[in-house]
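Sharing a chain and its predicted structure for anyone who wants a worked example. Both blocks are below, sequence first, tokens second.
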Amino acid sequence: MMPRGCGGIFMPGCELYVKTDEPFQGCLDEEWLRQVVEKTLVLEGVNSPVELGVVITDAETIRQLNRSYRGRDETTDVLSFALLEDSEAAPFITPPDGVSHLGEVILSYPQAAIQAKEHKHPLERELALLVIHGVLHLLGHEDEDEVAEARMRAEEKRVLGELTDERLL
């Protein structure tokens, strides 16, 4: 994964590591992806340095991860592996470098393409929604019940609405 700085006017700093599996290299503009991640962090009130990774992979890899870590033997669109999970049980201690390591968002590019077609909107819109969804999970948002899912969807729409990109329409 190659580090990409994504600090902006509103953020003290964000290190975004993007790993794109070979079949999907060149299919996704990393600068655009950085902007989606940064906008999500800013709108969620993140005001300290953070680090996270985004992996763009295939359906089989994400299915294996889903089976191994969630016990669900099925493909999915996005998985998040938050390093801050269960912080109530063991409070998170800020690392010496002052950067909060949020975790990883794993995205299935083929599943995003299928869902974009099903929803009749551009692939970029689906990819943005999935990245936003994954980052929200890294920040502690849940969607395991109807109420939490409704809150998550509302937050996704809010962030998506703040992105000014004609590719999302």
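Comments welcome. The helical segments are 30-43, 59-70, 109-119, 123-138, 146-162.
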